Amino acid sequence: MRYLVALMLVFIPLSVFAAIDTYEFKDEATRARFHTLTFELRCPKCQNQNLQDSNSPIAADLRNEVYKMVQAGNDDAEIKAFMVARYGEFVLYKPPVNETTYILWYGPFGLVVIGIIVLVAVSRKRKRHESEVDDLETHLNKDETDRLNDILGKGEHK
Amino acid sequence: MRRFILFIPLVIFIGMGAFLWKGLALDPTELPSALLDKPLPAFELPSLLDPERQVTEADLKGEVALVNVWATWCPSCKEEHAQLNRIKAEGYKVIGINYKDDREKADIWLKKYLNPYAFNIFDDKGSLGLDLGVYGAPETYVIDAEGIIRYKHVGVVDQRVWETLRTVMDQLKQSGKVSAE
């Protein structure tokens, strides 16, 4: 039995424990703030993970830094500014609105506007086209009307 | 006119293709340094080989230098070490930041692989690394005589990277001389 337990212990995946830090918070609000911040800040090393779920040592360091700052009572803006000063805007998952990010923030709206313009233009053209077809029929002279009716098989001489 | 409109999708396709093709050549792990053209952060840390001596940012001023962040636990650092030795041999100043490392191991490393560093800052807690925005050793900075960060390279310094770094350093030295005159 003891050997069995020992054997089973061998197979416990160590990585499961890797990203769990034990932090004691002074109150629940601080804990919540820590969670939001580590969720919104991106790990500089690992491209597409936030600080919360990254196992890399640098993420652990930064979590630790965030922890120290929330405990000390720094507000969110200060903590983000601290990270941006060191790692650049890359660390923010929600990028700020400025010249370099205008296209990111407003680009989609621009595309929607272009889409609407194209849609309106196309439907207008189609409408005009349809009315032109109608016009053609009304502008036929007597002979042409007769011929048309003849072809369609609904004239007087049947 | 109608004919022309038919080519719009093709033009868009070629445009996007060119854009994405360019994207392939970019390295997404390379982040622009937030500290570029800013002075080195203030710090006070012991020297690696002389624990009694305290090093501050003032000790890094006065000369254009490379600042290399390294550690014995970092395999790529071993890879670039020979290049750093060559850089020293070419007469350029290299300053080391021993990042989150063990003093004894670092000591052995420098004895074994030679020591290209003018001096080493022992940053065992990684506090200076954090202030510099280090996210993975090795990282190499070029600082000018005023201690302002002018260039950052993340990753191994090989001959090709060194040529870029050398150009930056030579330019800084040149402009430093001009302004001193």
Automatic annotation (TrEMBL), chain B:
Q: What is its main location?
A: membrane
The record's keywords, sorted A to Z, are: Cytochrome c-type biogenesis, Disulfide bond, Redox-active center
- List the source organism: Neptuniibacter pectenicola
Task: Provide the family line.
Answer: Belongs to the thioredoxin family. DsbE subfamily.
Localisation per UniProt entry:
Cell inner membrane
This protein's membrane topology, according to the annotation, is:
Single-pass membrane protein
Residues of the Thioredoxin domain: 34-174
Q: What is this protein called?
A: DsbE family thiol:disulfide interchange protein
Does Iron show up as a keyword for this record? Answer: no
InterPro entries reported in the protein's UniProt record: Periplasmic_diS_OxRdtase_DsbE (IPR004799), Redoxin (IPR013740), Thioredoxin-like_sf (IPR036249), Thioredoxin_CS (IPR017937), Thioredoxin_domain (IPR013766), Thioredoxin_ResA/DsbE_sf (IPR050553)
Give one Pfam family.
Redoxin
